[in-house]
Amino acid sequence: MKESIVVMGGGVIGLSCAYELRRRGHQVTVLDIQRCGGQASGAAAGMLAPYSENVEGSDPFFRFCLESLRLYPDWQQSVKEISGQTFEYTNSGSLYVAYHEADLLALEGRLMWQRQFGSSGRILEGDELFRLEPQLSRNVRAALHTPEESHLYAPHYVKALEEACRRLGVDIYENLEQLTVVEWRSKIAVRSKEGHTFRGDRLLVCSGAWAQELSDTFGIQIPVYPIRGQICAYAVDVKPVQHMVFGNQGYLVAKENGTLVCGASEDVAGFDTSVTERGIERLRKWNKAMFPFLADRIPFHRWAGLRPSTLDGLPLIGAADGTNRVVFAVGHYRNGILLSPATAMLAADWLEGKPISEDYRAFLPGRFSHS
């Protein structure tokens, strides 16, 4: 049965969910208090790197991230075809560097379990490493090379997602300033600041860090908080960095548009998206230690976005109660771009009442509430 679904939030998660739901034949309305893609989505570096960014082990979150990476080739091609727009999607592979013997041992341990999940990675040292990445500092002892990882240009991806949604017939309302859920137990009614009411059969909450404001409405704890991520970019004439390069203090990734993106300096600053000298200088210090050619360069662009973080680091994806009338898809922290296709499919399955893998019940939004 096809239904009318209201999606609160027009970031990459909200747009991806709307896109998937519309492809399944549902009537979809997206509501955003600002502009679509205006916070964490548009500010992201666009890395699709579950092996490099989830280093602790093969928990359900890592497996979810890996599933999403594997969905990307077909997903991004579909978005391009339906939107009529293009965006950079590059299978660059990644390097995770080690400066000391202890760091190298950690990389070797990580590689052992990641190979069980499809990684063809190898530890590279010496001439072999510097042939792959010639500008890398010679202070780097070794690096874990993971060919499977990719990246995309997030601002263009989000714009293409929005256009794909519009072409499929998704209704999108922006700059609504404030949204209030006034009815949700039998039908859905969401009211804007100006008093317009949007109605539907089901509600999908994708409002990032703002989802915490709905705790009283639904009677559950929604501990999603904004973490400010500051990023900078250098203008480069030729592509000086061939891979996504990670270390324990950040990352660098070169884009087709002649920029080298470096991030991310993180802090707790509420909903403040201003850029600080301290945050950018921390990045610059780390950047030039990794790539000495950056020592005398000044970033031409600096920006910040709000990343929705949860208390346990896992997203909230699933039904708010037993009816599946209200489903959450929030709290993706720094993995929103990577997780957009897998989250879209999981959220759509929740809304349609389909069976859900036991793995993904770790993401249930009610897990922080006490009876």
From TrEMBL:
<keyword id="KW-0560">Oxidoreductase</keyword>
<dbReference type="InterPro" id="IPR006076">
    <property type="entry name" value="FAD-dep_OxRdtase"/>
</dbReference>
<protein>
    <recommendedName>
        <fullName>glycine oxidase</fullName>
        <ecNumber>1.4.3.19</ecNumber>
    </recommendedName>
</protein>
<feature type="domain" description="FAD dependent oxidoreductase">
    <location>
        <begin position="5"/>
        <end position="350"/>
    </location>
</feature>
<keyword id="KW-0784">Thiamine biosynthesis</keyword>
<dbReference type="GO" id="GO:0005737">
    <property type="term" value="C:cytoplasm"/>
</dbReference>
<dbReference type="Pfam" id="PF01266">
    <property type="entry name" value="DAO"/>
</dbReference>
<dbReference type="InterPro" id="IPR012727">
    <property type="entry name" value="Gly_oxidase_ThiO"/>
</dbReference>
<dbReference type="GO" id="GO:0043799">
    <property type="term" value="F:glycine oxidase activity"/>
</dbReference>
<dbReference type="GO" id="GO:0009229">
    <property type="term" value="P:thiamine diphosphate biosynthetic process"/>
</dbReference>
<comment type="pathway">
    <text>Cofactor biosynthesis; thiamine diphosphate biosynthesis.</text>
</comment>
<dbReference type="GO" id="GO:0050660">
    <property type="term" value="F:flavin adenine dinucleotide binding"/>
</dbReference>
<dbReference type="InterPro" id="IPR036188">
    <property type="entry name" value="FAD/NAD-bd_sf"/>
</dbReference>
<dbReference type="GO" id="GO:0009228">
    <property type="term" value="P:thiamine biosynthetic process"/>
</dbReference>
